[in-house]
Amino acid sequence: MDNFTYFNPTKVHFGKGQIATLKEEISPNSRVLLTYGGGSIKTNGVYEQVLDALKECAVFEFGGIEPNPHYETLIKAVAVAKQEQIDVILAVGGGSVIDGSKFIAAAACYEGDSWDIITIGGGCVQRALPLGCVLTLPATGSEMNRNSVVTRAATQDKLSFGSDLVRPVFSILDPQTTYTLPARQIANGAVDSFVHIMEQYMTYPVNAKVSDRFAEGLLLTLLEDGPAALATPDDYDVRANLMWTATMALNGTLKNGVPTDWSTHAIGHELTALYGLDHAQTLAIVMPALWRYKKEQKKGKLLQYAHRVLNITEGTEEQQIELAIQKTEDFFSQMGNPTRLSDYNLTEKDIPAVQEKLTEHGLLAIGEHKDITPHDAAEILRLAL
Ligand code: NZQ
Ligand code: ZN
């Protein structure tokens, strides 16, 4: 088991009716910037609950943060935060609204060109406004982590930064807010969480039993409750288990003591920035192909996954690994995210641009062994044609 440092100060209020706890988290008379997306919160009662809880605060609104939040949009919110002398940002929505709000929180206190925060990274963030969240889409774990992914639309750059200063101070997770999610977003959330777990699990064994068994328990929950959420959309317990799984998948717990990969995400981000695929669609394409490409190096963990999660016991090791990959592809397809580039009308001619973008972004050696080059990434995508 490897060394680690674990830090996660985000307070979580989980369950029915918890939006009312905003009253305890945000002091009366605070100047609050309420950030949200394209308007889903105004049609499902979340907006009313939030305003009700913030009656004694001065609330300023910034809506219109799009999926894969655009830098071009976020800098407008930064101007509002500065002009209105905002005390606290409250992000209400999915990962895009929360990620965007992390950037706003940091950029509102940054003296130089705010794009530095993305290109230099979180190390240049010295201060940030406090951030609270009301999560409405279980997927990214952003509600309980230090990461933010921002897209500069003009240059098709989708890049991330991380800083402890933008970790949410608190996050409210009421599974009832997820009832209005379209099936596509339920599916995206389950696949994204699944891949977050795998980026921290599917590497090589280091005898870190706690992280491994946490990961396996969460994977089993997704395999059960992902399809269940599509089949029985009004089942509270299914929604609750999915929501907490998505948070646990990327709140730092699973990486304790283990190597991590993250190459599926790196390649996937380029596919989204170049061709507009949903984040989870890109992951469903890349991960199975990457496992096939790296199956010798990932052999120990692929077999562990096959045995402990998928209960595969028959056949040679080679056959067990291939079956485990196929069953994973079946799960993604069952969730509505097929696993081939051709399923999204992409072909061989779309691959070189991904290789070029990875090179441009300095992602020259990724994966747990730092041996996946942009050329390898192109070969991986060719396995997913
Ligand atoms: O904008 P609104 O109108 O709210 O609609 C959203 C959006 O269209 C809708 N939605 C959210 N909650 C809803 C709802 N619709 C109905 N009812 C609800 N309760 O869902 C759509 C997608 O929302 P979005 O926030 O974009 O989805 P998600 O949570 O999957 O976030 C994706 C973004 O997070 C980044 C991704 O790259 C992408 O930019 N990630 C962030 C990570 C992190 N911070 O740690 C890690 C992830 O790997 C990921 O990269
Ligand atoms: Zn992800």
From TrEMBL:
SUPFAM superfamilies: Dehydroquinate synthase-like. One of its GO terms (molecular function) is alcohol dehydrogenase (NADP+) activity. Coiled coil: none annotated. Its EC number is 1.1.1.-. GO terms for cellular component: cytosol. It comes from Vibrio mangrovi. Residues 9-175 form the Alcohol dehydrogenase iron-type/glycerol dehydrogenase GldA domain. Residues 187-381 form the Fe-containing alcohol dehydrogenase-like C-terminal domain. This is Alcohol dehydrogenase YqhD. It is an enzyme of class 1 (oxidoreductase). PROSITE patterns: ADH_IRON_2. Its cofactor is Fe cation. The keyword Oxidoreductase applies. Belongs to the iron-containing alcohol dehydrogenase family. Keywords: Oxidoreductase.
